[in-house]
Write a structure and sequence with these properties.
By secondary structure, this protein is an alpha+beta fold. Helix content is 24%, strand content 37%. It has helices at residues 43-51, 93-103, 108-121, 137-149, 167-184, 195-201, 219-224, 229-234; strands spanning 3-14, 17-28, 32-36, 58-63, 66-67, 78-81, 155-159, 187-192, 204-209, 212-217, 239-249, 252-256, 262-266, 273-279, 284-287, 293-302, 306-313, 318-324, 337-342, 348-349. The protein is globular, with a radius of gyration of 24 Å. The two termini are 33 Å apart.
Amino acid sequence: MSDAIDIRRVVKRFGPFVALHGVSLAIRDNEFFTLLGPSGCGKTTLLRMIAGFEDVSEGEILLFGQNIAGLEPNRRPVNTVFQHYALFPHLSVLDNVAFGLKMQGVPEAERRRRAGQKLEMVHLSAFANRLPAQLSGGQQQRVALARALAPEPRVLLLDEPLSALDLKLRQAMRVELKQLQEETGITFIFVTHDQEEALTMSDRIAVMSAGHVQQIGSARDIYEAPVNRFVAEFIGETNLLEVDVASVAAGIARVVLPGGHQLTCPAASDAGGRHHLSIRPERVSLVASGGDLDVTVERVVYLGTDLQILARLDGGADMHVRIQNSARIAVPSVGDRIGLRIEEGAARLLAD
């Protein structure tokens, strides 16, 4: 698969402040690629540089092999959907969708045909003659999507477009966005701070922090095999245990857990000494005895489908455990001493 975007050692400065520090990554054609990270990590700045709204301080960005430095935004085969949809309140839904085509000089009959086609794609054909104020937030978001898709860009940039929607609508729109990307074959580059959005929709994810790319991979790669503490903590919930590394060879570590038990696990670092072990709460089970860790139950939280058990090791470290709620499970009580067994392959030694 060829690359749609090739970002090479890109630096972005705003005066003395460096927003991006030599970022390099490649985004494949027809891929749903997500830039994920907390506010201020540089993800929106990078998106704006691809769109042409910000200049590159150092490095280069290639769009289908062409260096786009100096290429005006309206000359790039790229379109953007923003967090606030910026629909024209005085224009009908159909005219909003057709607006970009009108600016391109597309004849009226053709632009109405293409705008109507895109409205059908987002299931809003029946609303073509309404004004934006007569639509719900989710419907307005679909109009903004249709408008961005109407000129048939090769790359669609989406800057947190779901953040203004309520939870159920966000969940529904995740599915629709992924279906749209697959139907159109357009490369989608999606910016979000919401890790669940990223895991749900993305072919690949770049996790960013403080202007650096921490890790790039599939949702499974990022969740199951985080390279460092930041990624492990930012993507989902995890337990971080400080352990002594007894040995590391060929990417496999033997570590000493609190309490003295030894465990073999994949390692993101070949360094010895003390490092953090990442263990997802759903990969830990309760045992009466003979576990990898001995803990005291601090709290049991009922979450409907799941039970969350908060426990504490003798040394003071916390452990969170998630188990599926079932009548067959003997639920421990606060103050109980229990054992925890870590699933084989569930623990990962982090680089830092």
